[in-house]
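Hi U.,

Before I forget, here's the chain from the pilot set. I'm dumping it here mostly so it's searchable later in email.
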Amino acid sequence: MIRLASYQHSHEDALLAFWNAAFAGQRNFRPLTAQEWQQRMVAAPACDPAGLILAVAGDGQIVGGVHALRPAPAAGVYQLYDPRHHIAWLMVAAGWRGQGLGRRLLQAAESYLYYCPIFFATETTPLYGSVEGPRPPLFGSSQRMGLSLRTDRPLIDWLAGRGYNVVEPGAVSLARDLDSAIGPPAALDWNTLGLRFVPISHEAPWSGPGYDELRLWGDGGGWPYAGAVLADAAGAAAARVVWRPDPKGVAPRPPDGAAIVRLEVQPAWQGRGLGGYLLDRAMAEMAAAGHGRVEVQTHVVKHARAYELYTRRGFGLEDAWASLVKT
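Structure:
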């Protein structure tokens, strides 16, 4: 007999055991610890434990689960995002599939959310990606815990049969190796450009106008990051790059990797080589810090210029990601 129950603290050990077995082998996966679970989920303002619905066997073992998230509180970083209903993930343990358990979990999640649209595994899903700060997702790309078009096609097709359609295709993960001999690029003529180079990090967050996300990230909530903002004469942000080291994980993620979390140039400042400069400088900083590899997520359509820049710098395709919506 399998019963469905919303998460309670008494489920923690069984949930972590299920999680670490069910998702092992996913890209960028690393085992989830109780401390990280408490910090990233239970203590987070967007945590929605009633929507974390678990399939519990008679012996207390968790054999499946789904996390449905109602809109996060409109405060802090969440005020920058549209209020949405999300499903972050759905998984049934391998030995329990084919018994209708996934259907039961999905129906329970949809009933909890109570209306559409429902966004499944998108970049703006709270808790599981980089919405709250420059921290690694629990697995997936460098920015999101998503559905891989390479490995999750059966689940994508299963969801399609239940009204979930892929939207805005083109999200990809790219990566390249870093040579320890990489040096910083030649400095641009900041006076002529009318810009000022401002290093930022978890110890010195951005506090000026523009890029409110960076300001609200602040100290990163315990996750280190580094980068820079280019500020104009009024002190407003014209461009930015943010990168972070990856924690040690399991294959295929090497223990000395890093990830670019944000690289952006404001439209009025594009076409002046600022993006290339920031990317080259960030890669030099990563190499100097001992990182041998860098990953980034971008979009081949929405961020075509960035995609072209990465490919010119030697980044190659690692994976492609699907965002689904049920309307």
